[in-house]
Specification:
By secondary structure, this protein is α/β, with parallel strands linked by helices. The chain has 15 helices and 12 strands. It binds pyridoxal-5'-phosphate (PLP). Pyridoxal-5'-phosphate binds next to helix 4 and helix 5.
Length: 400
Amino acid sequence: MSKFDPASKVQKLRHFGEFGGVNPSITDSSTYTFLHGEDMFETFAGHMEGCFLYSRHWNPSNKYLADALAAMEDTEAGWITASGMAAITCALLQLCNTGDHIVTSVTTYGGTFAFLKNYLKKFKIDVTFVNITRLESIEAAIQPNTKVIYTESVTNPLLQVSDIPKLSKIAKKHDVKLMVDNTFTPMIISPARLGADIVVYSMTKFINGKNDCVAGAICADQQFIDDLSNVNDGTAMLLGPVLDPLRSSSILKNLHTLHIRMKQHSNNACYLAKKLFKAGVNVVYTGLENHPQHELHKKIMNQGFGFGGMLAIDFGTVEKANQIMQKMQESDIGYLAVSLGYFKTLFSCSGTSTSSEVPEDIQKQIGLSEGLVRFSVGLDNDIESTSEQIKKICEEGGVI
Ligand code: PLP
């Protein structure tokens, strides 16, 4: 287990607002004045540290949040985007040119899968999909034109754990970048500490934790972030998916409670997983000893935040999954909704929702059962009673 403490890194941040406000001031401006014409040119050329030019390029509110995330991830720098997909697509397009190649985990969020499989064809960027737990197949998939190995720390929705230290070794050996989506496990796993070159987030999920906006982030070394925001050829600067500063400032406040929320999500998910597994439910949770990468997860996680709030239950058929989900919503266990990291429990049938972009034959091949329901376990105060309720619904539905 790693001794790194991302929560203290966030807690130590000291940002003050105008007039000594305890929160940094929100910069409600798209453009910024300069006292001297030469300074404007120097800022365009990227030579004016601390000066702001135009809010698509950088704005102070996004800079506060980017710096906070970089502290949490222990990277030199960060960049804030208007969605998780913007973070993923900008970072990949920054790394790859026409004719390049990516090796990726076949189990990823459906939108990422669709971008890799369907969209990158436009740029003649080739993608090989692999089982991320089979390290030998990753190395075998690397070609002379490979630029990136892409994975999620804990994959969506199958909850496979990526061996980031070993993937990093392979990446370094072949001089390719390792990019890791850490959306499921902020604070729990620190991919850059384990050797990832670029860490991306959908902040829509646990980091913000309120389901009131979509947002994303990229954490990496200073050079990569500078390249992304270069006015001449930076992908983020030129495609322009910048987050509104008002949202950014509210996410920064929510980031300061992330460690408490992650502990509670983890405690609740672990309790549910153990109870339901014992009752005979087909549950997948990285904190269960029967999970194939349980020991690996233990090895790479930071101390004190648990195994995370995500679990999956295989109800066998989509009809059964729908019936149980409806019953759970009626019983106020949570909401039948996509997304995750919310204070209420959210559940959805992955194959027909957030992974519906993955063709059926590939779903079968990777073991994504049509009845697999992904749970993002909420911050319930009385998880014992939630667990009893779910058990009863499973019994009545003939699942156990
Ligand atoms: N990465 C993961 C693991 C996700 O689950 C999602 C969304 O569900 C995304 C990225 C995309 O993020 P966003 O919806 O903020 O664009």
